[in-house]
Here is the input.
Amino acid sequence: MSTHPRTSAKPKPDNTRWTGVKAAAFLKLLARHGKVARAAREVGMSRQAAYRLRARAPQFAQFWEQSMELAKRRRASSRRGRKPVHPLLARQAVPYAEWGDGSGQNG
Here is the structure.
């Protein structure tokens, strides 16, 4: 019985350089949630590396902006379907007379 850990036959991915596949995956993730650090981390790169690539690759920067705009639209559309916030949890004060019966329907 060997005490050495097994090594996989597959080489580890190179996380020091951007590839076309990584850049495309990053943009797709960025469009999904709009979080640069999270998208970069999910493709094995750093947030700083993503911003450096954006600075030196104009087409990547253009797709970045489109991805951020798509993420913004997705967040806005997901908020539209939510129930109203309870008056006690609202960000702005709601007069007690406008609270309604607690069913989410005012009046």
